[in-house]
Every structure is written in C-alpha cells, then in structure tokens.
Design brief:
The protein has 248 residues and is an alpha/beta fold. It is 39% helix and 19% strand. It has a single domain, classed as Alpha-Beta Barrel (TIM Barrel), CATH 3.20.20.370. The chain has a 7-stranded parallel β-barrel, surrounded by 6 helices. A two-stranded antiparallel sheet has the order 7-8. It starts with 5 loop residues before the first strand and ends in a 5-residue tail after the last strand. The mean pLDDT is 96.
Length: 248
C-alpha cells in the first residue's frame, strides 16, 4: 500500500486552554469552540483571526451546552435536537467567520454519540446537507456518521486521532475508561504513521483494524498538545507527507 502524500492536521481550539498561539502555526485546520462546551464571542473572534493570519482552515466545533463538563458527558438526545445544537452553533460562528467558515467537526460526547448511533448520524447529516452543503464535515473514520455523510454525497473528511485509543469496532474508547488517552508521545506518533502508511490501527485489546484517514486530530487542551503537534509535523516531514486541509 502506498503511504499518504498529504494529510490534514486538525486541532480543537478557542477553548481557553492557553495553547492556541503555539498550536496554530503547526496545524492546517482549526475547529473553533462555539460557546457551548467552551469559549465565547471574544474567544471565537480571537481564534478566527489567529487562524486567518496563519492560513489555517476555519471550522466550527459545536457540542453540548455544558461548560461544567466541557461537553464530554453523554446525555440522551433525539436526532432533531442534535441537529438543532449543531445548526445553532454554526450560525453563531458564521457571524464571526463569514465565508471563511470551511468545515464543521462535532465535539466531545455529541461527536461520539452521532458517530456511534445511526439515527443521530442520519438526523445531523440530513440537516447539514440541507442547510450547509458546502461545508466539509469531519467524522470518525468508518463511523455511522461517516456512512451517513457519504450516502448523501457530502464533503466528508474521515478523521483519526493521534492521542486516543480505539475499540475493536473502530469507535473511540470512552474517556471514562483508564486507557482512553495516549499520553506517550512516541506511541501517539507511531499510531499516526502506521495509519497513514498501512491504513491500520490496533485496538486496545490487540486487534488490527483497517482505517482510512483524511485528517488527524491532536487535542488542543492536553498538557503536551504543542509538543505532540510539533513532533508530528517533524515526523510527517521526514516521511515526505505534506500537511494541508482536506480539499473542498
């Protein structure tokens, strides 16, 4: 199998984690919090302007309205409610970014539930396709959400994670589990390079899974986020893999 010639490196920003200035030059796409799980109008403006200065693709990062739990607590949600959450936050960041808004990536528990549950996936994909058909939509590689977007011939970027572990069904390990995060930089880099070279990833219980990547996520709120992003850029350069946003 031929290794990837280019890859998108995306990061969740505008979350007041303190790393945005250092991370922005290292990535190609920024997913900017829309004031629900984190951020506010001021942080949205700052993140959009910073991304524009560095030529980084600007995206919305909608999640649950849940500042206390950073949008990472799973909750019951119906398809129409999930779609409304996404559409409302897209409208909020569009007021700041305008036509520079290029993509959307869901956040936290909402991301995981929509990627796992076909009814939620169909509901959100349908509304995005109806109202925001020009946006690139990020979805967990191989997920129900990715399938729903592909079936509607929408602009899909299948996403993998540098710093998260996988279950044997291809889903991410819930953060409530002790082995959900990859904190070792060498292990995270090795996982990304294997995905890009072989289109394979190993689950937490040792099963090799086929996986395709259009984009790699590095979480911007981790204590080692900048070091990991910088290391990834270095290793990708050595491997001859360019970093740039997914095509529109």
């Amino acid at each position: 199998m031929q290794p990837a010639h280019s890859i998108d490196l995306n990061c969740d920003l505008g979350e007041s984690a303190g790393h945005d200035t250092d991370l922005m030059p290292l990535i190609s796409s920024a997913n900017i919090a829309c004031g629900a799980h984190a951020g506010n109008l001021e942080t949205m403006i700052e993140a959009v302007e910073l991304a524009a200065r560095h030529g980084v693709a600007i995206g919305a990062h909608p999640g649950y309205f849940d500042l206390e739990n950073f949008g990472r607590q799973k909750r019951p949600v119906e398809p129409d409610e999930a779609a409304r959450l996404v559409l409302l936050q897209l409208e909020q960041i569009y007021e700041v970014a305008g036509r520079r808004l290029r993509h959307v990536k869901l956040h936290g528990a909402l991301y995981n539930q929509v990627c796992r549950e076909p009814l939620l996936a169909d509901g959100v994909a349908s509304e995005l396709g109806r109202l925001w058909p020009h946006l690139v939509v990020y979805a967990l590689a191989g997920s129900a959400f990715a399938r729903a977007l592909r079936s509607r011939e929408m602009r899909l970027a299948e996403e993998v994670f540098a710093d998260r572990t996988y279950q044997r069904d291809g889903s991410l390990t819930w953060r409530s589990q002790p082995d959900a995060m990859i904190t070792d930089e060498n292990r995270a880099v090795a996982q990304v390079l294997r995905i890009l070279r072989e289109e394979m990833v190993t689950s937490v219980d040792g099963v090799d899974l086929p996986i395709h990547a259009d984009s790699v996520c590095v979480h911007g709120d981790g204590p080692n986020a900048v070091a990991l992003a910088r290391r990834l850029r270095e290793e990708l350069a050595v491997a001859g893999i360019a970093v740039k946003p997914p095509p529109v």
